[in-house]
Amino acid sequence: MSVIIYFIKLLGKYVFERSDETLIKQVLKGKKAAWITLVKRYEKPLFNYALRMVNHREDALDLMQDVFVAIFRNLSSFRGDSPFKGWLFKIAHYRCIEFYRRKRPMQGLDDLPEQTGDIADTCPEYLMNSSQQSQKLHKALALLPINQKLVVEMKFFQHCTFDDIARQLGLSVNTVKSRLYSALDKLKGHLELEHEST
Questions:
Q1: Under-70 pLDDT residues of the chain
Q2: Is residue 7 part of a domain?
Q3: Domain of 124: which CATH number?
Q4: From CA 91, how far away is CA 94, in angstroms rounded?
């Protein structure tokens, strides 16, 4: 491929790629192709988020589908005050919490036991593409309680600020920080144990 053709394709991607806001307007006018484009844009990050949160491929797919259905039904209520991606993941957080509540209806989120599932058992194709350190980190993340896992997910995978996390989860900034630091201590402990056993 010549340099000129490569440059034209690269430039075309940036010039002709439609913004989320443009796609949303088209979806609201009934354009199915715009909805498909929006889904394709966010399905991979949403699936990866769901997989990190629920540690099981089929549950992650169900959660992702549930989020897209909720978004489609409520798209007209999106005001555009904040980026669409933030709105999408806010819905994903709520759906994830609902998933855990359905799973353990008699327990609060803070009372949920640590997860014992291992991503290696549920999604080997994902781990085949990961480094050994990444595998260990995902295994350790699976052991965190949901309330701590949510904060780690938002801070390190979605790059949210403490204020954003607090606002989206309806918590104080101090509570968010406390959950994050507690989660990091647990992760450190799990990773040290893993290192000692190898």
A1: 1-17, 104-134, 195-198
A2: no
A3: 1.10.1740.10
A4: 5
